[in-house]
Design brief:
It is a single chain. It is built from six helices and two strands; from the N terminus they run ααααββαα. By secondary structure, it is mainly alpha-helical. 61% of the residues lie in helices and 6% in strands. It has a two-stranded antiparallel sheet.
Length: 158
Amino acid sequence: MSRSGADLALLLLAGFRTLADRATTELTERGYEDVRTVHDFALHSILSGADSVSELARRMSVTRQAAAKTIAVLEERGYVARRPDPADRRRTHLHVTEHGLALLGQGEAVFDELRERWEEQVGAESLAVLEEALRSLVGDRAIRLDSPGWIARDPDVP
């Protein structure tokens, strides 16, 4: 069994992918078909104030074209809508719809259920030790939910 740094990085990534992929499958079974991890990041970004294509692109560390495509998918599925800017009718603002909020709620519930399964599989104490070790290594505020890019650290936290 290798103990290289690269193996550790891949193991941590595999843990994330395993949870994300299982969550996607669970959400599909609950009627939220074709939901991707990027949609969760986008919805959280919009909830935290990214109300335009440009701002969403910046927060997600993607091009404006990629952000626009994500918004189009979310709008088509009823998770996001646009509202006119009362001060400037040429502008619109993105907002998460009730359907989008329901998706996020279901997503949180699914992740809680997946965590419970991991706890049953490895034991509550082992999972708590793992979580504490990861917090010690990366910090409590290391990753922002509204930023899936490699530059996901909060710029205001050293």
